[in-house]
Queue: 4 jobs
Job 1
Amino acid sequence: MQDPLSLPLPGREGEEVELLETHPANPKRLTSRSRERVRAIDVVFEADARERDLGDVLAERRLRTAAQTALPERSAHLVELVAAHREEIDEQLSTHSRDWPLHRMPAVDRAILRTGAAEILHDTPADGIGPVIGEYATIARELSTEDSPRFVNGLLQRIGEMRDLLG
C-alpha cells in the first residue's frame, strides 16, 4: 500500500483522487448537530464514491455502520432529504457554482454541499440558515481542502439567498 503522505491532495483542478481510507473529523471542534451532519455526509459521500443508489446505502447504514454508534435519526433524515431532492439540489449547485461543475468538485465537497443544500432548501431550522451554513463550512474545514470552507460557505450562501427570494 502506498504511503498516505505521498498521495496528491484533492484540489480545485478536478483531478481524480482514489479513496483509500477516510479520517473522521475532529469531534472536539464539532457540535452534536454537526456530528449528525457529518454522519449524513458520510452516507452521501459513500453512495457517490461507490456509484450506488443513496436510498440503498442509507438502508445498509441503518442496519450496519462502520461507526461505533448507530446512524442517528437526524442523519438519516438529512440523507432522505438529499435522496428525495437530488435532482433539484444538483441543479441548484450547478447553477450557482458558476465555474465549478459538480463532477470537477472534490467528492467530499459534493457530499457536504448536497447535504447542506438539502437542509437549507427543505429543512431550514427556526434560527435560520446562517448557523447551518457556518456549520457546513466548519465541517468542510475539518474534512476537505484548504479552499473548501470558503467555497462551501459561498455556494450555500448563494443557494440560501435564492431560496429566500423564491420563497
Note: The chain has seven helices and no strands.
Job 2
Amino acid sequence: MRKTNIGAMDCPIAQSLELVGEWWSILILRDAFQGLSKFDEFQRSLGLSPTMLTRRLKTLVRNGILYKQAYCTRPARFEYLLTERGQAFFPVLLTLLQWGNQALAHEDIAVVPVNRRHAAKVAPVLVDRDTGEPLTHLNVTIAAGPRAGKGIKRRLETRQEKLKHHDAYPHKEFL
C-alpha cells in the first residue's frame, strides 16, 4: 500500500506532518533534544529495528531537520544533530508533552518539563508574541495567507460561515 503524500496539500499543517508526522520521527526528535545523537543511542532508546531507524534518520536529514556529521572515520560513524529547522520543532514537542500530561496521564505523570537552570517544573502556555494573550481555540482562527489557492480559500470561507453561526449560538461547542 502506497502512502498518501499529504505534503502536497495546500496547508502548512499537512506539509509539516509530511516532514515529521511519523511517530518514530517525533520520538527521534524527542531523544535528540535530550542529547542523543548517535545511531546506537537512538536504537537503544527506542528499541527500533536498524532498518526502520536508518529510514527515519535519512528522512529527517533529507528534510533538513537533522544533519549528519562524522565523528569517527574508521569505521565511518556519524552523529545526527538538530538543524535550525529541527530546533524550531521544540515548542511543538513541548506542547505535545503538555497535552499528553493533561489529557492522558491524569495523576500518573511519568515525564514533566523542568527549567534547565533551577529544575523547577514549567507549565507551557502558547501566547501571542505581541500581546502576551494566551491563544486558544476560542480566540484564534485560521485565515487564508497570501499564497492560498482557491481550494483552501473555499474551505476557510465555509469554516468562517460555521463560526459565525457558532457565535450566534455560543452555547454550542465548536472546534
Note: The CA atoms of residues 66 and 83 lie 5 Å apart.
Job 3
Amino acid sequence: MATAAEAIKLAGASFRPDVILMDIYMPEVDGLEATRAIKKLYPEIAVVILTSSEKDSHLFEAVRADAAGYLLKNLDADELFNMLEGVAKGEAAMTRAMASKVLKGIARQQIGGPDERSKR
C-alpha cells in the first residue's frame, strides 16, 4: 500500500491482518495517525511501527497510539522476523534501546497523555 489511508481501508477488508507494519513517514496521513485510526476501528490488529525515525517524540506517540512495537529499518532481518513472531503471540516488538527510551520517558512522565501528567 502506498498511503496511510489505504492501510486503514485495507485493515477492514475481509482478510483482516493480524499484524500491520506501518511507517511514520507516509503521504497524506502519517503512520502514527493511521495507527490511531486502525486501533480505534480494529483493536485486535497489532500495528508495528517500522521506521527510520529515532525521535523520542515519535516513539512516545507510537506508544500512546497503542502500537504493538517500534522498530528501526536498520534492524537485522532475522531479528525483525523474530520480533514479528513475538507480536503474533501478543508480545511487544521493541529493541532494548527503544525499551530503554520508553522506560526513561515513563520515569519523566513523557509517555502518558496530558491527563495523566496533570494528576501528579
Note: DSSP finds six helices and four strands in the chain.
Job 4
Amino acid sequence: MLFVCYPKCTTCQKAQKWLEEKGVEYQFRDIKQENPTEQELRQWHAMSGLPLKRFFNTSGLQYKALGLKDKLPAMSEDEQFALLATDGMLVKRPLLIGADFALPGFKPSEWQERLDG
C-alpha cells in the first residue's frame, strides 16, 4: 500500500499512527516532496469511485487563496486534474492507495473496512 501524506499535518500523523498500530505495511510518500502526477490522480480517482471534489484539500490555504470554492464548478475535469497535479498542498490528504482502492482523507471506519475487505 502507498501512504501519501504531509508529515506536518496532524491528521496525517494520526493516520500513520493508526496504520502502525494495525501492523499495516506501507510505502511512505511526502506529498510536498513528491506531488502526485496527473496520471496518478486520474487512476486514484477512478479507483475511489468518489466525486473529484473529494480529492481537493478544501480546508487548505492554497485552495482558499485560489478561490477554488467558486471556480471548481466551472472547471472541466481535465482542468481540475491539471490543477491538482501542480501542487500537493491542493490534494486531500492523507491518501491510502491499495491495489484496487484509493481513500482520500482519514476516516478510520472506511480505512478499516478496506483493510478487512
Note: Residues 48 and 102 are 5 Å apart (CA to CA).
